[in-house]
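To: structure desk
From: M.T.
Subject: fold request, one chain
Message: Could you run this one when you get a chance? Sequence is below, nothing fancy, just the single chain.
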Amino acid sequence: MTSGDRSTTLAAKPRVLLFGNIFQPPFVNNLIGPLRAFERVCTLKLVEPRLLDGFVSTASAAPAPLPFASAVEAVMGFEPEIVICLAGAIFVPEELKCVLPSSAVYVGLALSDPLGLPSSLAIAPSFDLFYSQDPSTFAAYRAAGIAVRECAPAIDGELFAPLDVPKQWDVFFAGKWTAYRQEAIAALARVCRLRLHGHASESRWDPPALPALASPEELRAGIASAYLALEFAVIDDYPPPVYGTWRLTNRPQLAAAGGVASLIEDSPFIGRYFEPEQEIIPYQSISHLVERVTRLVAEPARCAELGRRARARVLREHLWDHRVAGILRDVAAFLGSR
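Reply: Done. Structure tokens follow.
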């Protein structure tokens, strides 16, 4: 590897070095989308830190530096224009930057805020451009003097698309167990046909959960089998100040891409992503959720129309292709300002 000149322009198909644990369950359904989007428009080299000797995964609970020796060996011979650290509080330490091209632009994406916000704030200054999915954290970044940019939750529109299969279930949910979620799931199971998938080795669900869905194909089929998808956006299993925070993941986008609208806890932030009552169904409490589901499953045509509108919104605004295009524009502007 060489130090290189500090370029002020970006190649038509830029060379991107991507550090991310893409294929580590259960994250593959979330992280394969950005990988594929970058592959479509860049010359990409993927390095999964979990496979590097000396790397310690923190799941965003603490900064996770890339180990120098094994990272150098993995990257050897590739001269990136852009270096991206995707989720997990992964960052490139200074000694590793010294052996990468000096012209490289460093891009960080935080996909776990506000849960991982302390780690994000710690590593963000080491990047030229830093993105977060969670707008509720932007004030904290600004207070720390960090110019954060938004990278809203997104999906891969090819991996997640409608399937023409019978609707055997009323509501679909896949996710981790919490006491609040258990209460909601138990209430729904009494009034509708509920398809429930838990995380691997989780045995606390009642009714019992089906096995975890470990691939985009399995998740796509599960979503397609129901009229509606259920999402829990309010964090109820972390202490303050995170407890009670509304946080959107990409699960409503995944469902919408499959032509299935989601039920989600109400929040003023919903309108940033979907039109309430037209593309997504908000609820205020468990009893309100049960009421909404009971009425909606009696109207399959309305469920189908909600799903069509939600899918159209995703295809217009919430694909990883949109996010990657925006990141590359930002990189080009950053290079032009050098």
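Reply (cont.): The two ends are 22 Å apart (CA to CA). Let me know if you need anything else for the meeting.
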